[in-house]
Write a structure and sequence with these properties.
This protein folds into 2 domains: 30-398, no CATH class; 450-602 and 624-654 and 679-704, Rossmann fold, CATH 3.40.50. It is 56% helix and 6% strand. The protein is built from 28 helices and 12 strands. It has helices at 30-47, 58-82, 87-116, 119-123, 126-133, 137-143, 161-184, 189-211, 215-220, 222-241, 249-267, 275-296, 300-305, 308-315, 317-334, 339-367, 369-372, 375-398, 440-445, 477-481, 483-492, 519-539, 570-585, 605-611, 627-638, 676-681, 683-690, 700-704; strands spanning 462-464, 470-475, 496-501, 511-513, 543-547, 558-560, 592-595, 620-621, 642-645, 657-658, 661-662, 665-666. A hairpin with a 2-residue loop joins strand 11 and strand 12. Helix 2 packs across helix 12. It is elongated, with a radius of gyration of 30 Å.
């Protein structure tokens, strides 16, 4: 985000201008530097996860409004001076202001990641660094489905570049848009104001619509955040044309104080509203702040914001924003710190690095006479730096094959030592051996290919074609995970295997996770309707197998779309949905296999292995408190045609200590998904539990008849 104050306009030249000077005068506003300081430290409080400042992310909203306001005044001042916007000069100034500091932060963050992050973890940051450097980070993280509001899980140190990307996109497009409106409206400022107001209203409406279905998309999208930049534009346009009266300054100073208090309230947990509503409120408060400060023309609030120390913090706030989030993310990789300590560390280190960047790099580049006189060099050089850093330098640093010098073992690493007299499980036989030379990047990325399975008749659901009956595998990514095992079983018994896979959707009919308005939730309901109402009767499988990730209450807020399935607790809802779903799948006498969830590990073992020397460094204790397992086993006990299959003993010992490699094969590709090779190796053990060959699948129809 650009948070630099514009320079005082140059002396007016003789060339006539149709715009005229600002009705309220224009020049550097010291109190705006102070407002930047307030905004950036609100963001720091939020990123440090201080509960009291759960809405501190509105500091970014303030920056957006400020940016629209300031850049518009810069453009209008240029037009007023020379009668036109000097595009080369404008873009050169933006390049010198934004790119050197961000390039340094991107490279510095990559170096920091090398020091504390595992090699495989760093590879995942290559795309993030590229997006950050090339101004499309917000759309990149939308595609990656990054959860900005869950800052404890948003582990990319480049995530905060989403807001910088929006501003950079705005700076690229807005000058052309504004000058186009200026020409199309016959150089009438009133009409330009009306046109911008329509655009802002459209963005607000679109933001509200998108926010009802996807809060992250609404928060990160350029289109849904444009209104905040545009309301800043509107304030600048109106104040350029409308002279504020001298009367009322005393009241304006009171309003300024109240608006500052209001901004802090909007940033706190006192206001329990959605991010969308909070953003609208922050934009409104920012408009009041700008107008009240301009009208007040002084007062103690404006004076406080203009204090030298506060102004200095505001002047370097761009750098503080750039550096503080990598400090937060990388610090948490090596230290266990509370919110207050994390805020102190990120504020101190982030502000210190920002001050160094400002004094040693940014100010010399911005004010250097040689560059100021060569706008083409500034533009081409800036774009070149961004391309080189994003495409070459940052990826090269992040791909360095080096174990991090500063490394903390997994948070819940299992003890390797055995209790006296306890026999070591054969699963741990190789745990003291060195980590073999593995392509861990390939291990982490490998997933079984899956069919589309969108046709009502299930004709596009086939994984493997057989000649004597069929198995339908149903569930989320864990169903996909078990494809290699069930494919081997199907091939062994000459059976067709169909797969109905819907990521992040539990298998029981009507079950979904999270907000009902979320697109993923709607997709789950639609997928269940297709499966239970159309594909299941059409395919008429001889055996149904279900698999889903474990439904722990602390991880997933389970919901039901079925009116006939309600419960007063999470575990009761799990049981009700499982029993109802199992009944639907058992219709027509179909045998049913319930694959019990595999234990979840506290850390991704492939990431751990990439930084480890011996395998024991990545021996972790799994988490296996899934309420559906008890229901599965009851169903299997009560019905001889239902099996509850537990593969945990093949992954972990009796104390749930789970080795990362068994018999030379990596067990997992992340915290809870098995690798395809290891899943395939489970086929025989699964078949032994179910005994598919003894099910007489082909005789089911005859038996039913």
């Amino acid at each position: 985000m650009s948070i630099a104050a514009p320079a005082v306009p140059e002396t007016r030249v003789d060339e006539p201008s149709q715009l005229g000077p600002s009705a309220n005068g224009w020049g550097h506003r010291p109190h705006l530097d102070g407002l930047r300081a307030v905004a950036v430290y609100l963001v720091l409080l939020f990123h440090a996860r201080l509960p009291a400042f759960a809405g501190g992310f509105v500091g970014v909203d303030v920056f957006f409004v400020l940016s629209g306001y300031l850049v518009t005044n810069v453009i209008l001042a240029d037009v007023a001076i020379v009668g036109r916007l000097r595009f080369g000069r404008f873009y050169a100034r933006r390049a010198r202001r934004l790119i050197p500091a961000s390039a340094l932060a991107i490279v510095g963050t990559a170096v920091g990641a090398v020091l504390v992050a595992a090699p495989l973890d760093r590879l995942a940051l290559v795309g993030d660094a590229r997006a950050a450097s090339l101004w499309y980070a917000n759309w990149h993280f939308i595609v990656e489905a990054a959860d900005y509001f869950n800052v404890g899980q948003a582990e990319s140190p480049y995530l905060h570049f989403w807001s910088l990307a929006i501003e950079e996109q705005f700076y690229l497009v807005f000058p052309v848009l504004l000058m186009g409106l200026w020409v199309l409206t016959g150089r009438r400022l009133r009409r330009v104001i009306a046109a911008v107001a329509v655009l802002a209203a459209g963005s607000v409406a679109w933001q509200v619509v998108v926010a009802t279905s996807d809060a992250n998309r609404a928060y990160l999208g350029t289109d849904t955040r444009a209104y905040q930049l545009l309301v800043g534009v509107l304030v600048a346009l109106v104040l350029w044309r409308v002279k504020l009266p001298d009367r009322g300054r005393r009241w304006a100073r009171t309003v300024l104080v109240l608006a500052l208090v209001g901004l802090v309230v909007v940033a706190t947990a006192l206001l329990d509203v959605s991010p969308s509503v909070r953003g609208l409120a922050a934009a409104g408060v920012s408009v009041v702040l700008l107008v009240a400060a301009e009208w007040a023309a002084g007062g103690w609030a404006s004076g406080a914001l203009s204090l030298p120390t506060v102004r200095k913090l505001g002047m370097i706030s761009y750098g503080t924003y750039l550096w503080h989030w990598p400090v937060v993310v990388l610090t948490e990789r090596v230290l266990e710190v509370g919110p207050v300590a994390l805020f102190v560390i990120s504020a101190t280190v982030g502000t210190g690095l920002a001050a160094l960047s400002h004094d040693l790099l940014e100010r010399p580049v911005r004010r250097g006479a040689w560059l100021q006189g060569r706008p083409t060099v500034s533009i081409v050089g800036g774009v070149g730096i961004a391309l080189v850093v994003g495409a070459l330098v940052a990826p090269a640093i992040l791909r360095v094959d080096l174990r991090p010098p500063v490394r903390v073992p997994p948070e819940e690493q299992a003890a390797v030592g055995e209790d006296p007299g306890e026999a070591r499980s054969p699963l741990l036989d190789s745990i003291d051996e060195p980590v073999p030379d593995l392509d861990l990047e390939a291990v982490a990325r490998e997933v079984p290919p899956i069919p589309d399975c969108r046709e009502p008749d299930g004709s596009d659901c086939v994984v493997v074609e057989g000649g004597s009956g069929g198995i339908l595998l149903v569930g989320d990514s864990h169903a996909r995970m078990f494809v290699p095992a069930w494919k081997a079983i199907a091939e062994q018994h000459d059976l067709t295997l169909w797969l109905n896979h819907s990521g992040s959707c539990p298998w029981p009919d009507g079950a979904f996770l999270g907000d009902p308005s979320n697109p993923r939730s709607r997709r789950c309901v639609e997928s269940h309707d297709l499966l239970y109402d159309e594909q299941l009767p059409s395919l008429d499988p001889d055996l149904v197998v279900v698999a889903s990730n474990g439904l722990r209450e602390r991880d997933f807020p389970l919901r039901s779309s079925r009116d006939d399935v309600t419960a007063d607790s999470h575990d009761a809802l799990v049981e009700a949905l499982v029993r109802t779903g199992a009944g639907g799948l058992r219709d027509a006498g179909r045998p049913l296999v319930l694959m019990e969830p595999v234990p979840i590990l506290p850390e991704d073992p492939t990431v751990c292995l990439s930084a480890a020397i011996v395998q024991s460094e990545c021996l972790m204790t799994g988490i296996d408190d899934f309420p559906e397992e008890a229901v599965y086993r009851e169903l299997a006990t009560d019905d001889p045609q239902v099996w509850s299959v537990d593969v945990d003993p093949l992954l972990c010992d009796e104390r749930l200590r789970c080795p990362p490699i068994i018999d030379g094969v990596p067990v997992r590709r992340d915290q809870d998904h098995l690798t395809p090779d290891f899943a395939a190796a489970l086929a025989s053990a699964i078949d032994d539990q179910v005994q598919v060959s003894a099910l007489d699948l082909l005789d089911r129809d005859d038996q039913d008849g």
